[in-house]
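Chapter review. Work through the record for Fibronectin type-III domain-containing protein before attempting the end-of-chapter questions.
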Amino acid sequence: MQRFRTGVPSVLLALGVKLRQDFTPAVKLAYKQALLRMAPGATIIPVAIDSEDLAQTVHTVALFPESVAGGVAAAQQLAVKLRAGGLNAYFDQRKFGRVHPEVVAEPYLADSTGDTVPSLPGSHPAGMITVAWYDYRPDQVTPQRRSAYVAAIEKFLPGAVVTYKMHVDDGDWTGAGGNAALEKVSMDTVISNASPAALAKALNTIRTRPASVWPVAQFGQMAVEEGYAVRWVPDSSFVSPCDVRTTLKLTGILALTPTCNRQTTAAYLATLKASLPGDAVTTVVSATRVSSGCQIVTSTSYPNSRHASVLALAGRLVKTPYPLSGTSFGATSRFPAFLIAGEVVTGKQRNVVTSKFVLLISASAIGQTSGKGAAFPVPGDSFVKYKFKLQPAQCQAGKSCAPLTFTSDTATPSFPGLTPSTTYVFTLRKVGCPACKPLTFKSNNATATFPGLEPGSTYNVTVEGVSKTGERIRSDNWLPLVMPPGLLLTKAVATGYTTGTATARTLPAKTFIKYNVTVSGVDKAGSITKGSNMLHFVTPSLPALRLTKVRATSPNKGLGVAEPGTLGIFQKYNVTVSGVDKASSITKGSNMLQFRTPAAQEIELAPPAPPPLVPIIGSTEPVNSTSAIVRIIAPSSLQCSSFKIRLCPINPAGPTCTVQACPTTLCQVSGLFPGTTYSVTVICLTGNGNELANTITGGTVTTLPELAVESADATGPYTGTGTADPTPNSWPFTKYTFTLKEASCASCPLLTFTSNSPMVAFTGLKSDTTYTVTVVGADSAGTTTEGSNMKQFKTPAAPPPPPPSDPSIDPGSATATSAFLDINPGTNLQCVSYRVKLCPVKPPSTTCIFAACTSTSCRVTGLSPGTVYSVTVVCLDANGNVIPPESSPVLLTTAPGFNLTSASATSPFRGTASAVAIPADVFVVVLYTLRDVSCPSCPPLTFNGTTLLGTFAGLTPATTYNVTAVGVDAAGTATPSSNWLPFTTPAASPPPSPRPPSPSPPRPAPSPVNPAAITSSTASSPTSGVVQLTAPVGITCTSYIVELCPVPPPGGACVNTSCPTISCAVTGLTAGTSYKVSAVCVDSSNTQVPASNTGTLTTPPSLSIASAGATSSVAGTATASPSSSNPFVSYNFTVVDKSCGSCPALVFTSSSPTVPLTGLTRNTTYNVTVVGIDGSGAVTPGTVWKTFTTDPLVINLVSAVATSLDSGNASAAIPAGGTFTNDAAAADNV
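Structure tokens for Fibronectin type-III domain-containing protein:
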């Protein structure tokens, strides 16, 4: 592709080159070198040589090969130097004599030969021609005549837009020193807003017949110089196809990554580069911890334009799950990488590709009929709903299983209503009763409830599992189940208005020797009042059974008599008989008979009370998590043979009630849900099972919650994690206490871990050890619930110690004179301090620098700018002795150096400053900032240039300025601001006395009556200006009306202003707009007399800071607000520490109005201002400041635990935006 350049045509006359043959190759080379001193880096092409004024004129084009915007700025600087005169300082007068410009044209688009490049998008044709006033001295070319000059061209070519710049031909052609009387003003004119053909025709007419455009009677003789042409000029929006490069910005997220440090970022960058073309340059823009992991933004620059292929690559990477290969960030990694956005920019072409992903990170059962899952969105806020699909893995033979779908607003739902995989059959055998029939209970859960057992009895329990396919697995052990003794109130009746009696029955009988009695009263409204005390009584103990009398009743019968009252202890008696003969020999009976005593009388506490009229609930209480006891007081007026109990869940509400028949007034209900409140209803049943009307009363009971260890796993040799599963999940446990016991060490101390949530981390464990985990939950009232199960896990063996490693060093970041180094001391080294050696790689400096560092993060100063150093490090012990070996060398390059060497005023309104750069040719743009010392709140003045010599215009006389500068290299990287130097402009001198007019050619006599004239039109701000008039001769004006109309038409509404004097202030203009100015004189009779000429006024564009704010503790962003015309191609933002007037300013350059601010200091207030640079290189300062403060950075150590006898782990909480060069944790040796 042809490389576009920016050209500046000029015609220079060299008096010392008399003949064409005098322009020898040696003279031609010296000519080009002289211009190169004025425009370093340009290509000078002398395209033609002609004879003029007894000497030779050289037609020259200076080409600037950098970007078009930069070339235009450099070309305009050269044009300014050519028009300013003083060329003899650059040219060797022994070869060239005195030199002056004949023609200086405007920058245009050129090829490598200097020819214009036509018809490119974003460019327009312009006719360039230089016309000299031959009949008027420079002081006679007044603003009125110049306005008439422009108006004549606009009349000749309607619709054209005409601009010009002037230079003075100093009359050198008359000999050394020239002749002031023959000086002439040359108008370097640009005509636009017409077709190329129309412009070419107009230039030909102007060249051959100038009087047809500028009548001699009005303008005198107008001479057209050589070097005219129609050339194509870039607009402010022009982008050269050769300057366009494709940029790819990728946003990646390392899912589930707990840290976002430099090591992680470097590893990700290396992996990403493997998926990108080798000729692209990729850097990290930012790395931020977000909810879904570590978000890393990278920027990849390509050396040319390849938008389509890069967009296809971005689409493939962003849309593909697990786009990066390898074990670090691929599909099999613990922290896989996903690319969620790709932005491809080529010039003004921009495309964005986005994507989002969701991972299923866990799925587990939490019971026989329920489960739970966990999804992980990338990015974290991608989804508002999640749909989980469960497909049964096994089905019964010959049947298909339909999938189950669950939709949830969260990423961690539960799955109720699942089919259990196993049915459990529990078998209970009563101990001591071989004839008793075994009891069986079926359950879908591995935990079952056994209702209807006999209090005080012992049962042996075993279990059998039955799978869905019919396979049976029988337990190989039995466990004993000992039921507690039972106590049941069988009767409670009133014996009077204030007395009653109650009867209790114990199972087994005579279990209790003392009874506690409490009472509660129920009023007519149903309110219950508990008694304020408790009484107890003790049943009398009975003596042991003994025989009191034995006698014979016949030869073959006898009688034994026991002590009265003693038989009540026993329910059954065995009786045998023996015979004694006269010789006292005893003969035992051959058999045994048995009899039973009548049932014992029940204990009565008081005379019985009359029963109630309807059944009521005496009391309710939970037995455990799935059963409860309801005590019923039977009615007196109804014949209730039995009762029916109905329990309906009310908190949480449920659709199914539990109904159970109760043969007695003491009813135990099973099959309830844990932690659930039920309403209780009692129904009286007749002997045939019919419900009696009006016998329903109510009450409530709440079952106890359940708690189980859901999971327990090792996370490392010395750490683990546990999770509890409360049922219901809403039960208000406020504390969970996990207890760990070594499975193989009964005497080892227990480890206890407490958490406010069901999840807890275990630390300080032993490696290669099996632990048994149990849990206890407690609510806010301190009521505890023990877990119903235990879990085991085993920690892995500790990894072997790492092999010895040598010390190494990371060069980190470097400024021009300092660097931050991160030191890795290696292993098995007892390092107390470190010695760093930095040696320049190549001359001119050969002296090594040594630095002592007391920690692994070290700052080294005293370096040379723009220098490559070889850096090594060695460890030092406590005595300062070197511990070999020395690390392998790494390279460190310091930033280029930049410093101001002088600053001075050259006039009351101008100044200059010189800078020195190391290396000398590294910077392509230099930005100078001037501050008025006496006005700290005034916006600074900003100037830019392409050399190390800066010039400043528009200064205020008698004012002291501080000046600093910033260098910008070809990549757009800016240095920190340089040192500050002051200078003071002198006071302005009074205007000189007018000199006597020099002889001049005759000119037409003035008219006896002259109308008013516009002498100047000047913008004073982006929205205002001043029009200066000359009062008419022969007319008395009472006022003036000035009209400003935007050009080219239609450019908006005109602005009219009435002024009483010849100095007219105009407001209400539009920033960045050109206006045609006309005026009329209004006399006392209200007659309007137009001014004799028109003028032009161009308001500067406006620019201000729209916003500035911190995005973290070390970064921020700023946005400029340009006027609607927005001619700016570049913005320079200056950021200054508000509390430190002498601190270096930070300068950020951007092609868009928004720029990220980096490298800031935490908790610091900054002032931000902006200047805009348009396509011509003109600089517009912003009108306001913005102030913002960076966030304070707080880092908290959140944990520190030992992992072995000589090591430990620590973790810190780093806020978003925190950036650290080294994460460190320190542990005391114990």
